[in-house]
Input
Amino acid sequence: MKDWKITPAVFTNFILLSFIIGILFSPFAGSCKGAKDVVFAEEENPLLKSKAIGNAVDIQQALREIYKQASPSVVRIETEQIVKMQAHPFFNDPQFRHFFGTPQERESKRQGLGSGFIISKDGYIVTNNHVVANVDKITVKVHGGKSYTARLIGSDQISDLALVKIDGEKNLTPVFLGDSDSIRVGDFGIAIGNPFGLESTFTFGVISSTGQDINAADGVSRIQTDAAINPGNSGGPLLNIKGEVIGINQMIYSQSGGSVGIGFAIPINHVKVVVEKLKQGKKIKPGYIGVSIVDPGDPNIDATLSAFGLKDKKGLLIRDIALNSPAMKAGLRQYDFITQVDNVAAESFSVLKNAVLRKGVGEVIEVKFLRSGKPESVKIKIEEIPLRDQQQE
Output
């Protein structure tokens, strides 16, 4: 075996090589040490001990579960309409027709997008009337991508509601319907839909107002929310934190065409009554009795009721009576306090509104009320709502 000897030259080269290697790799070693300290730190995140953070995580988990439950019930609605294009006025010139004859009308296909939600396992779907009005074909795409041709069961232009149906299905996933009378300003509001043709977007906000009068012809106040609602969301559901539908998204206020945090939804309690009539093939006529009610959400409502000796009583205080209205003809007066409508406790405005809607024009409702503390009762014949009184019930 050959003996190895370390000569001065070999020793010098070894020292020089070690020095070079140390210079090249020392920054890498330092960075690795720092990375280890940051990425693999063993200290516990102090925020995990915060009760507030824990509550926020619970809300986050609730939102995930709401989306998981509700999204299979929300549908994308695609429509087609054949539009006949009129000839240019130039072609109406008799001299032109004399030489060239009458030009043929041209047809073009107009497409639309919207949203809706399933309300029964056998395929009934609610959407806005303006989504499906005057179209030639309705295609419904459910969660997962499967498409169906749907038919229009009925629609109401005044309330902007429509009922369509998928035939041949028996096991679709319907939504859970909530109570729109129970919501309050500050409650969470969640919108699901298909804005701009996107698939099943999910936006989260709060209820900004429960009684917005926006010149709706049906006289029903809309729910306002700052949950983002954009073109294509129309007809989709507005949900509460329980995952229940409390409204149907209808419109937005915007100068840009996109969401600015002011969206409106039709209360689901009103939708229920209209849809049931549409399902029965009935035509919706906007009835009214001609009263307006002091808003139960008015911050001064308690003081107002106390002034009339009605503190802690449940009912509706009449703010105004329309001249020559059915209510005036029946004998109701300003500041009468309605306690029952057709033997149902008048704990919310929708009790009165839905009674009028259910009975319809020409029918009679019975209203029980207090006047100066004395119980009284009248029967009111419902009339069709005149245009000048669109904001009254």
